[in-house]
Design a protein that fits this description.
alpha/beta; Rossmann fold; seven-stranded mixed beta sheet; about 40% helix; binds S-adenosylmethionine
Length: about 270
């Protein structure tokens, strides 16, 4: 295991959150289920599968159910996440788990299907990642994914900029059209897609931020020296409560999820 993988902040955050991840309110479990349903209706022959950023295995479990005799390789950078997959899917003979930064793997032309749920937006720059994934596919291979796009956690992002304008984000979620542009450049033809907007209710703004931490998603878009102070967090929580209430004492957080099914190369 390279020390780069061990020490990478994304690996540390998700690894630390692995035990609490599945219990948090959020959209990931539902998104994985919806993506799996799309994949199962694809109707194309699949000789093997690569899952990218498998986390605790929400999508992995569906893939194992749909493809019980097909080799499945699931990759995640966080060891703690893979431990959860082992608990969720013990003795799954066709499943191989690999701890790695996907961007450091070489698997040229090996797969007929690549799947990824709620993970690609962590693998920036996305153009490099998509180009790499295209190189992992057989000619005519398929990429099916769901990822968060611009508009996800929009309330939190807007309030953070108000409360701490001197601490800008180091990166932003891509827009849907940016994702399509990058997919084209990587050689993919998008055959089907859906953009889904939803919101999740939390009891309080503090509870919401705690839950993000327990999902491992804190700090991914800001540099370590740009973290909010306690005072700034208090201010943000107060503004959140006033500006984005649910009407029953809670607060809401928006999610925008892009589902896309693409084939490598031009459509016949
Ligand atoms: C929000 S979680 C989603 C996990 C799971 N697919 C789900 O639907 O719940 C994102 C996952 O991507 C993994 N990840 C992020 N960057 C990665 C990279 N460069 N290589 C491999 N895995 C990565 C994280 O460790 C984390 O488990």
């Amino acid at each position: 295991m390279s020390s780069m993988v061990e020490n990478c902040p994304i690996s540390k955050h998700f690894g630390a959150a692995a035990k609490s991840y599945d219990r948090q309110p959020g959209v990931q479990s539902r998104v994985a289920h919806r993506l799996a349903t799309r994949i199962s209706k694809g109707g194309k022959a699949v000789s093997n599968v690569l899952e990218v950023g498998c986390g605790t295995g929400f999508l992995t479990a569906h893939l194992c159910r749909f493809f019980p005799d097909t080799p499945i390789v699931a990759v995640d950078i966080a060891g703690g996440m893979l431990d959860r997959v082992r608990t969720r899917l013990p003795q799954q003979k066709n499943l191989q788990l690999i701890r790695a930064d996907i961007c450091e793997l070489e698997m040229t032309g090996m797969f007929s299907l690549i799947a990824s749920s709620s993970a690609l937006h962590w693998m920036m720059p996305l153009d490099n990642t998509l180009r790499l994934l295209s190189s992992f596919l057989h000619p005519g291979g398929r990429l099916s994914f769901a990822m968060m796009v611009r508009g996800t956690l929009a309330e939190l992002h807007a309030l953070r900029e108000e409360v701490a304008p001197q601490k800008p984000y180091v990166r932003f979620l891509p827009t849907t059209s940016a994702v399509f542009g990058l997919m084209r450049c990587a050689g993919f033809t998008v055959e089907d897609w859906t953009l889904e907007s939803s919101s999740v209710r939390y009891n309080s703004a503090f509870g919401f931020m705690k839950s993000l931490k327990r999902q491992g998603v804190t700090g991914g878009f800001v540099s370590p020296d740009n973290m909010l102070t306690r005072g700034e967090i208090r201010k943000l929580a107060e503004k959140y409560r006033r500006r984005f209430p649910t009407g029953d004492g809670g607060i809401r957080a928006s999610y925008k999820v892009l589902y896309a099914d693409a084939v490598l190369g031009k459509k016949a």
